[in-house]
Structure formats: structure tokens, C-alpha cells
């Protein structure tokens, strides 16, 4: 049974079909939510909220072929709602890619991932959401715009601003690390 048929059956109230849809997408959506929220527990809650919204609104889904984009949008919106409700506090989260890394220098890969993690911590949830959907999930900019329900130009500008902010955060982190090393502290 394909995804379209499952979505149509779930839209008619078939809980088993919905369970199959959830099983096929839960790991991917939780990974996206963890990257946006930076907290595994909040991420699970946001994904659960997205699935509740999906179950309630599935009968109104006009194009079952766009189920993945719709679930991405529901997840991002649930993450942003969760982020608005919680107090700001630094959170540590382990980044685990959807696919295994390619063969290369493991030390360099770890250092790059740590640097990226420090940069990501300095971004807002909106900026992380755009970067995660484009670079981690692999959505094109038009698909990103469709997933978030925004015009193409808005998606392009949000992605551009998020990249500028990430570059600035990475540069600020490098300056901080150099200053700490010069003072004899560990980076």
C-alpha cells in the first residue's frame, strides 16, 4: 500500500493506516524537531503535537501526495509553538545524521560538527528550522516555501538571513575560542 492510499484511508478515520504513516515518518520528524528545539524531550512533545494536529486535520488534506511536506510544516509549527511557550535556557543535544557520514578524517568531522553545534546554539528556532529543512532534510527552496506555507521570495530571504546569521555565529565562536586559548583556557 502506498503513502497516498494510506493517507486517504487515514483521512477517512482508519487508525491502522495512520499508525503506518506515523511509523514511516517519526524518526525523521523527531530528528528535525531535535535540531530545531535542541532538547530531545521537547522535540518528542512537538512531534506528538504535530501528529495530533495531523490526525485532526487529515480529512482536510487536499493532496495526499504532499503528505510529507504537510507533516514537515506541522512539525516546524509545533516546534515554534513549543519554543514560544518555554523559557530561554541553553540546551545540549546530540546531533545524529539521518544517514551515516562518508569515509574521511573522523577527528576533522567531529571538530566540524562541534563547531556547527556551537553556531546553531546561537541561532533562533526560526533560523534553525529553515536551515534544517534545507540542508538536513534536503528540501529545495521551492519545497521549503511550500512546506512552510510562505512565498518563494520569503523562503529565499529567510534562508539567506539564516546563513548570514550562522556564519556570524561561527565567526563569533572562532573569535571566542581563540581568546580562550590565548588566556590559557580550553576551548
What key attributes describe this structure?
8 helices; Rna Polymerase Sigma Factor, Chain: A; 187 residues; mainly alpha; elongated; Arc Repressor Mutant, subunit A; 2 domains; 73% helix
Fold topology:
Blueprint: H1 3-11, H2 15-37, H3 40-57, H4 67-85, H5 106-121, H6 125-136, H7 141-148, H8 152-182
Helix pairs in contact: 1-2, 2-3, 2-4, 2-6, 3-4, 4-6, 4-7, 5-8, 6-8, 7-8
Description:
With 187 residues, the protein is mainly α. The chain folds into two domains: 1-90, Rna Polymerase Sigma Factor, Chain: A (Orthogonal Bundle), CATH 1.10.1740.10; 104-187, Winged helix-like DNA-binding domain superfamily/Winged helix DNA-binding domain (Arc Repressor Mutant, subunit A), CATH 1.10.10.10. The chain is built from eight helices and no strands. It has helices at 3-11, 15-37, 40-57, 67-85, 106-121, 125-136, 141-148, 152-182. It is elongated, with a radius of gyration of 18 Å. The termini are far apart. Mean pLDDT is 82; it is low at 177-182.
What's the architecture of the largest domain in CATH terms? Answer: Orthogonal Bundle
CATH topology of the largest domain: Rna Polymerase Sigma Factor, Chain: A
What is the number of domains?
2
Major sheet: size, sense and barrel closure? none
* Mean pLDDT rating: 82
CATH superfamily of the largest domain: RNA polymerase sigma factor, region 2, helix turn helix motif
Please identify the structural class as seen in this structure: mainly alpha
SSE ordering: HHHHHHHH
| Beta-strand share of residues | under 5%
Uncertain ranges: 177-182
Number of helices: 8
CATH class of the largest domain: Mainly Alpha
Shape: elongated
The termini sit apart by 52 Å
Find the count of extended strands (DSSP E, 2+ residues).
0
Kindly state the percentage of residues in helix.
Answer: over 70%
C-alpha Rg (nearest Å):
18 Å
Amino acid at each position: 500500500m502506498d503513502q497516498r492510499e494510506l493517507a486517504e484511508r487515514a483521512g477517512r478515520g482508519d487508525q491502522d493506516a495512520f499508525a503506518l504513516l506515523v511509523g514511516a515518518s517519526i524518526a525523521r520528524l523527531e530528528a528535525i524537531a531535535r535540531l530545531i528545539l535542541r532538547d530531545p524531550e521537547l522535540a518528542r512533545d512537538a512531534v506528538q503535537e504535530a501528529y495530533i494536529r495531523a490526525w485532526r486535520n487529515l480529512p482536510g488534506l487536499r493532496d495526499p501526495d504532499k503528505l510529507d511536506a504537510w507533516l514537515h510544516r506541522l512539525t516546524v509549527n509545533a516546534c515554534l509553538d513549543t519554543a514560544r511557550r518555554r523559557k530561554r535556557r541553553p540546551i545540549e543535544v546530540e546531533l545524529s545524521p539521518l544517514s551515516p557520514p562518508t569515509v574521511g578524517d573522523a577527528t576533522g568531522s567531529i571538530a566540524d560538527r562541534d563547531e556547527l553545534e556551537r553556531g546553531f546554539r546561537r541561532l533562533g528556532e526560526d533560523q534553525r528550522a529553515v536551515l534544517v529543512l534545507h540542508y538536513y532534510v534536503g528540501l529545495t527552496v521551492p519545497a521549503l516555501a511550500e512546506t512552510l506555507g510562505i512565498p518563494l521570495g520569503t523562503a529565499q530571504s529567510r534562508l539567506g538571513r539564516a546563513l548570514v546569521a550562522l556564519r556570524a555565529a561561527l565567526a563569533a565562536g572562532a573569535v571566542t575560542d581563540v581568546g580562550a586559548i590565548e588566556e590559557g583556557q580550553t576551548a
